[in-house]
Design goal:
Order of helices and strands: EEHHEEE
Number of strands: 5
Oligomer: single chain
Low-confidence stretches: none
Distance between the termini: 30 Å
Mean pLDDT: 91
Length: 95
């Protein structure tokens, strides 16, 4: 499997009557670009916001470090991200 960043756009009617396009990035493990697009399109957030895919990038290496994905069956397909909120305005997520 390879690591892909999928850049998605959407129009949120709750923000400025939906006139501006907002964006979000999803990390997806897939076999190729098409597989990554298919996997992101079934995500609940993607469907809820009626998103579209603007672009897909395969992440091969970052700052001289190659990506290596290893399946961990104990995660049951779950995605885990660790975030650092750097702005005081960000609402903390309950643990």
């Amino acid at each position: 499997m390879k690591l892909f960043l999928v850049h998605c756009g959407f129009y949120d009617l709750d923000l400025c009557d939906g006139i501006y396009e907002s964006h979000v990035n999803f990390f997806v493990a897939g076999h190729d670009f098409e597989d990554a697009k298919v996997k992101v399109k079934v995500l609940p957030e993607f469907k809820k916001k009626r998103m579209h895919v603007d672009g897909v990038q395969e992440v091969i290496a970052v700052q001289g470090y190659r990506m290596s994905l290893q399946e961990d069956k104990s995660l049951n397909g779950e995605t885990i991200l660790v975030s650092s909120r750097h702005r005081d305005l960000a609402t903390p997520k309950p643990l």
